[in-house]
Amino acid sequence: MTAYLVAVGIVALIYMLLTLGLNLQYGYTGLINFGHVAFFAIGAYASALLTLSGWPMAPAFAVGTLLAGLAAWPIGLLSLRLSDDYLAVVTLGFSEAVRITIQEERWLTKGVQGLPGIPRMFQSLGIGEYAEIATLALLVVVNAAAVALVVHLVRSPYGRLIQAIRDDEVAVEALGKHPARLKVQVFMVGAALAGLAGGFYAHFITYLSPDQFLPLVTFYVWIAMIIGGPGRTAGAVAGATILMVFLEGSRFTRELVPGVSEVQLASVRIAMIGLALILMTLYRPQGIFGERKE
Amino acid sequence: MSAKGRPEGELLPPGGKARSAKGAPVSAKGRPEGAPASPGATAQAARAAPPLLAATGLVKAFGGFRAVDDVAFEVAERQLTGIVGTNGAGKSTAFALVAGQLAPDAGSVTLGGDDITRLSPSARARRGLARTFQVPREFTHLTVRDNLLAAAPRTSGETLSSVFLQPRRVRAEEAAQAAIAERWLAFLNLAAVADLHAGKLSGGQKKLLELGRVLMLAPRLILLDEPFAGVNPVLIGEISARIRELNATEGIAFVIIEHNLEALKRLVSQLYVMDRGRVIAEGDPAAVLADARVQEAYMGGVI
Amino acid sequence: MTTAVDFVNLALNGLVEGLLIALPALALTLVMGIARFPNAATGDYMTVSAYAALGVQKALGVAIAVAAIGAAAAGIAVALFFHLWVFRALARRRPVASLVASIGIAFLVRALLTLFVGQEQQTFQVALVRAWNFGGVRLLPTDLYAALGAIVAMAALFALLHATPIGRQMRAVADNPDLARASGIRAGRVMLVMWACTGALCAVGGVLMGVKAVVMPELGWELLIPAFAAMILGGIGSVPGAVAGGVLLGMVQELSIPFVGPSYKIAVTFGVMLAVLLLRPRGLFGSAPAAR
User: Fold this and answer.
1) What's the rounded Cα separation, in Å, for the pair B293 and C214?
2) Contact C115/A103, CB-based, under 8 Å?
3) Which of A89, A276, A282 sits opposite C38 (nearest CB)?
4) Could you report the per-residue pLDDT of C117-162, keeping only the tens digit for each?
5) Which of A96, A281, A286 to probe the C interface (max C CBs under 10 A)?
6) Looking at chain B from residue 133 to 172, which residues have their Cβ under 8 Å from any Cβ of chain A?
7) Which one, B65, C15, C54, C220, has least CB within 10 Å?
8) Closest residue of C to A93, CA-based?
9) Residue C47: which of C77, C75, C17, C84 has the closest Cα?
10) pTM to 2 decimals?
């Protein structure tokens, strides 16, 4: 039971990192990123491949995070030329292009076969089952640091300006500012957080395959952010937790209602996510806690 | 106080004596004393030194429709100028061409003699040409105070690395800007609502907020797009008084688009009338409004 | 070694696929032009319609052309339902609200379909005919019929837009919504007709795609990005543009196979979309640029 809770906690904290990144991009800056999973995948594969080729884990994590951030650079530049809706479509297309590339470049990623045997975090310490607890603890620290970073950022003049960009970019330009620089930076920082989350994911799951990086993951993160309320850091934390309770909770329905197949359960779960996106957008665009009106 | 290398970003609070940092380069270019009151004087001044703002031969077409068709106007230092015209006469389009939100199909815009036709809106704003919008573009989810601070001239706090590596410097600059913002808030009677989200303000308050925001830029010229639209009469008087005061003490020139002719007439020294994309009359407000063509094209006998 | 004849075959196949991509691209461009958001559920409306046709055919044993009527009914019903429930309520909010909701609809529809019909691939009962062979250039009769079906649907839309009062009103709203409202056009009715058209286009597209390939829950979702790319390529809001964009994209996709393999289709699509957005943001026929 403890092992189960630890595992759930780890996944929840990974989602939390993803949500913090997306919230910085969309919630604070208004960048519609429908391809978050791509940066998650880049971080995961980079870190996994490097450790499998003998790198120590810490630099592999760093490179994965960095690569995810850098991959966001051209997309961020593109976002300067696109209105919001098109950025959404382009990022969605990008995430599918990344997934197909992972699937096809077998020499590197082993394609659909997947990448097994990725080293577990803290495994080399020989502390057995405590390795997972250590992972959980590290994730708590990393999330706390990410929250502190985001909170410090959004309360700074920089954070005020990105929120101004979200509210009215034309006005920001008319006031002598360059939204471009900030938008690209925020896009990269958010993607780097997703890349970092990817590193944790790879070394926790220990097996990667392209079908773990479907657009569905992006929208799991979106629903977590929307539930918590876009533009609220505490909301990102709460939203990721609620998402995890839902995803795990739905697993237990299988034990309560016998005869439900895995495919059926997955369908119900996806339908619920879809329904939640519709209902939240219609009735609670400010999140379930917020009173802020659009 | 403000970022290095931008002396013109220096800003004196309302009621300040002179704008030392700003006044210097302006007078160096030989700005004539006082604002010319009549169009004749403007033309004279233009020969002596470049006018503060000059637009020549501006054209902007949308599809086949010429929204702005060969428009020219001039604004001297410290001058208060009005633009009137029916809806669709091309006034707001002309503003967008001057401030850079739109690129003209032909024509040019100069500021203090420098060609700014190809500059971005933000570059123009940094040179002291600021504008407000017909439909207020407040930052809805920011407080009124943060709306002003967001407009503060570029500080180190807007650089990602400084936010984390130089927190002390960022805090100091922020405090300086906050003090300036506080004074403008008081000047515009917005201090009481400083902590409200800007989206919650009334229409008139949003107009004031936009004015406060551009004042943070310490501009030489402000383009106001319908500052009195949807504003109650008491507040109109107040906004007019503030414009006069800013003009007198800070030396800021204004170009004002307005439908409220009574209020505008009392405020400006020069008036342009636009109709179907063209300027059909210009000069002294009283004389222009008495012009038969203006009466016909625009007023329809309203006055 | 790819011969010239192979290229002709690929181009031909690309043409047919392109015509099928053009149908959801048209549905997207209609919504984009009039309701002003990218409808991410477009593909899933196709899927619903394809399954509806499949159901009708199984239940009644009728020909595919008859079953398509059932598909159209389903497509129109689902499009109108989500318009009335979701998009009408979101019309006054920022486009991103409708966009996010349409993603939710896409997931909901696809998941419910999977739940009730399962993940297995299914096929329509179509008489198996051998391909015609013109000196190596092969053409499947079913492909020809699919292409003809798509062309008929497009012609019908074109006629509706240009030869009927409601069509003219739709174009007026797309051109200038404020002006259209000022001149007394009832926006609500225009919206209903537009969504009905969208549903019908998706229905034809879904059935024809099902005939050409197989019917499965991902049928439409996988066409979403190609349809977007076709719309952007042709120029947002342009009906002939969506058709040209679809055909061009279909051919580029097929002709790229000898060089990058069939799996990279979606990446090729993404590349085309990027190239258009960067080099010619208004697309082939568009007036309003997608980028700024």
Assistant:
1) 72
2) no
3) A89
4) 988 899 888 777 788 888 888 888 888 989 999 999 999 999 999 9
5) A281
6) 133, 137-142, 146-147, 149-155, 157-160, 163-164, 170
7) B65
8) C270
9) C75
10) 0.89
A170: chain B residues, CB-CB within 8 Å: 101, 121, 137
**Side chain identity at residue A264, one-letter code:** Q
Vertex C76: Cα angle to C71 and C81 (nearest 5): 125
Asked if residues B219 and B10 have their Cβ atoms less than 8 Å apart, the reply is no
Q: Which residue, among B87, B58, B95, B81, has the nearest Cα to B275 in the 3D structure?
A: B87
User: Starting at the edge strand that comes first in sequence, how are the strands of the sheet with B114-115 ordered?
Assistant: B65-75, B53-62, B106-111, B114-115
Calculate helix-pair angle for A84-104, C221-234, nearest 10 degrees. Answer: 130
**Which amino acid would we find at residue B133?**
F
Question: How confident is the model over A106-155, as pLDDT tens digits?
Answer: 999 999 999 999 999 888 777 777 888 999 999 999 999 999 999 999 99
Task: Give yes or no for a contact between B116 and B129, defined as CB atoms under 8 angstroms apart.
Answer: yes
Using the beta-carbon criterion (under 8 Å), do C228 and A88 form an inter-chain contact? no
What order of strands is seen across the sheet that includes strand B253-257? B129-131, B221-225, B253-257, B80-85, B270-275, B278-283
Domains and CATH numbers, chain C: 4-124+139-279 (1.10.3470)
Nearest to B295 by CA among B278, B277, B275: B275
In this complex, the residue of B147, B153, B163 whose CB is nearest that of residue A158 is B163
- CA C66 vs CA B193, C60, C287: distances in Å: 66, 10, 38
Token reading at A192:
């780097």
User: What's at B83, amino acid-wise?
Assistant: I
Cβ separation of A177 and B122 shorter than 8 Å? Answer: yes
SS3 call for A241 = helix
- The tokens for B251 are 């030396």
